[in-house]
Design a protein that fits this description.
By secondary structure, the protein is mainly alpha-helical. The chain is about 60% helix and about 5% strand. It has a two-stranded antiparallel sheet with strand order 1-2. InterPro entries: 4_helix_cytokine-like_core (IPR009079).
Length: about 130
């Protein structure tokens, strides 16, 4: 019985570490995209789904899962930010969630969406 408990605790700790590393790897990519959209009028007309919908505490696994799906669908993203790596890390964070992006709801500017992801990433990373 002790061996089973030890195995479960070890697996949980390992899973937490993977989540932690993926989040750490995602932050620079989100930060890069965010900065590039702030410094370019080219992205003033790029809108995406607002996943937060006025919920300030929605920085959960589901949010990162949905964020990966939303970013994957964006046709126009700044170059030079290793987007594939960012999407892969967001996907790994949300891999245990089977999520869908709501079809209805408000849309926000891409830069605001990236700001939400950045804030959530830093919030979750600082508490893990």
């Amino acid at each position: 019985m002790k061996a089973v408990i030890l195995l479960l605790v070890t697996a949980a700790a390992f899973n937490h570490q993977l989540h932690h590393n993926n989040l750490r790897s995602a932050i620079p990519g989100v930060d890069c995209l965010h900065k590039k959209t702030l410094n370019s009028v080219e992205f003033d007309s790029v809108f995406v789904k607002d996943l937060k919908q006025n919920r300030t505490d929605s920085c959960e696994t589901k949010f990162f899962c949905q964020a990966e799906k939303v970013l994957s669908a964006v046709q126009k993203l700044p170059e030079g930010c290793n987007i594939d790596n960012l999407l892969r890390n967001l996907k790994q964070i949300g891999k245990e969630k089977n999520c869908t992006v709501p079809k209805k709801g408000d849309e926000i500017l891409l830069r605001s969406f990236l700001d939400d992801i950045l804030k959530c990433s830093k919030k979750v990373f600082s508490t893990s």
